[in-house]
Amino acid sequence: MAESYHPASAADRAAVRTIPGVIASHPPIAFVPAAVGGVPGSRDRRDPRITPLFGDVAGLPPVLVHVGEDEVLLDDARRSAARCAAAGAAAECHVWQGMAHVFPSNVGVLEAAGAALDHAGAFLREHLAARRRPGAAV
After folding, report:
1. CA distances from 16 to 1, 60, 76, 134 (A)
2. How far apart are CA 48 and CA 51, in angstroms?
3. pLDDT at 129 (0 to 100)
4. Paired strand residues for 93
5. Which residues contact 92 (CB under 8 A, 6 or more apart)?
6. Nearest to residue 66, comparing CAs of 38, 96, 23, 39?
7. Nearest one of 135, 81, 77, 126 to 102, comparing CA atoms
8. How many whole angstroms separate alpha carbon 69 and alpha carbon 8?
9. CB 136 within 8 A of CB 130
10. Is 37 buried (19+), middle (13-18) or exposed (0-12) by CB count in 10 A?
11. Mean pLDDT (10-residue bins), the chain, 138 residues
12. Going by C-beta distance under 8 Å and a sequence separation of 6 or more, which residues neighbour residue 11?
């Protein structure tokens, strides 16, 4: 699995703290127990319908993960990408310095958001083009 680290600009490091839901440099961890408490019934939290990390990843297409360094799910994102790679999928994990949960949705606010989406487009172009080549395995 390929993993890369993307440093943030000073502007992004300042701007990310102004986004609703980001407290200081970390996502609102206090909300996690409430979110987990919303799991239907008394299902096992290892159920892949609740936590995809525990699902069957065999046969997945190429996987691209963009995750903020300050993301509460950083370790899960890394583990998910590694599991996909171990199962044979082309997998990349990109860790973005100082970024929090769903940072790519902040295009126009964060330079890193635009860069992450540009990278996702390049990833799709690369892997979709590979599928069009005769005999190419993706």
Report:
1. 28, 32, 21, 44
2. 5
3. 92
4. 3, 65
5. 1, 2, 3, 4, 63, 64, 65, 81, 123
6. 96
7. 77
8. 10
9. yes
10. exposed
11. 77 71 50 58 74 86 93 89 93 93 89 95 94 66
12. 111
| Amino acid occupying residue 37 | G
Amino acid letter, residue 132: R
Residue 109: CB atoms within 10 Å: 16
Contact between 101 and 76 under an 8 Å Cβ cutoff? The reply is: no
